[in-house]
Amino acid sequence: xxGIIEKYKTYLPLVNDEIIISLGEGNTPLVRxxxxxxxxxxxxxxxxxxxGANPTGSFKDRGMTLAMSNAVAKNAPAVICASTGNTSxxxxxxxxxxxxxxxxxxxxxxxxxxxxxxxxxxxxxxxxIKGNFDQGLTIVKEIASNESITLVNSLNPYRIPGQQTAAYxxxxxLQLAPDxxxxxxxxxxxxxxxxxxxxxxxxxxxYHKSPQIFACQxxxxxxxxxxxxxxxxxxxxxxxxxxxxxxxxxxNIAIEASEGRFLACSDAxxxxxxxxxxxxxxxxxxxxxxxxxxGLLKAIENNFVQEGTTxxxxxxxxxxxxxxxxxQHLDFQLNSVSPSLDAVRKIIxxxx
Length: 352
Ligand code: AN7
Hints:
Blueprint: H1 4-8, E1 30-32, H2 34-40, E2 45-50, H3 60-73, E3 78-82, H4 86-98, E4 101-107, H5 113-121, E5 125-129, H6 133-146, E6 150-151, H7 159-174, E7 180-184, H8 189-203, E8 212-218, H9 223-226, H10 248-257, E9 261-265, H11 267-281, H12 287-301, E10 310-315, H13 323-329, H14 341-351
Parallel strand pairs: 2-10, 3-4, 3-6, 4-5, 7-8, 7-10, 8-9
Antiparallel strand pairs: 1-2
Helix pairs in contact: 3-4, 3-7, 4-5, 7-8, 8-10, 11-12
The protein binds ligand AN7.
Ligand AN7 binds near residues 185, 188 and 288.
């Protein structure tokens, strides 16, 4: 299976045509959320772009394939990133494929266990700091500016072009540009990538108007909504627990130019949206990703979206990365019964 570089080569800055480090990323499902449409009761077409279907389970793979290919082409000896989890998983996997050493800096106790295990099993050197993502990013930027190690955070110039391919795919899948695009925002790299991606396709003559971008945060980790950096961001959606976004200006430009909005949702709304998506649409995304659905519901409630429109929500990461959170918040009972036909049948009969 070919990845996003093969598919969208003409749009991507590739240093050496012969060197492509790919795990078959991209080409993720665009799923119509019919049950959600019914639930909101308006004439809206709502789609989910399921980025958790990427090789390491998040959208980060799109940027990482290009960043890693070019790092190899430039003979980098190693790569480094700070991460809330998904970037470290993607960096570790693509570095493994490339045969490069990866160093990943993570905030102690604040990344999902699945993501941490990914970094380990792919063979990265994991460095845990007694601090948050923002502090980690400051450190890796400094290291990458002095050493020959390549930074593969979204500040790497190839990450954003790679991530733009998600916007191209959506338009190619829908055969049109959506009216609205909802996505979670942390550092703002992906918001910037989507906006630039949609604008690139618009400039290529594919449509006249790019979608309005709605970028969604968690209430207590909402620097964009508040209009200033936040020192101690807190949210159960650890992937977007970011107080000093690196793509501050570009994200503000994307929201303003697209006539979109920043939205903040409570952790409770995010968890509710995550559970609803799983139970009613069959899609298990991680909490941060559910912020886009929580944001959409809030936007609909506030009449920010017009009737008769097409909406795409990006579900940035896979729910399987963070099952501990589900365990904590989902009200479930698991009692064992005797291994007899009668016992099992009794339970089924009571449930039907
Ligand atoms: C699932 O992995 O920042 O606004 O270090 O993992 O581009 O930062 C992750 C971010 C949304 C926010 N959804 O994207 C990291 C990291 C998920 C994420 C975001 C992240 P950006």
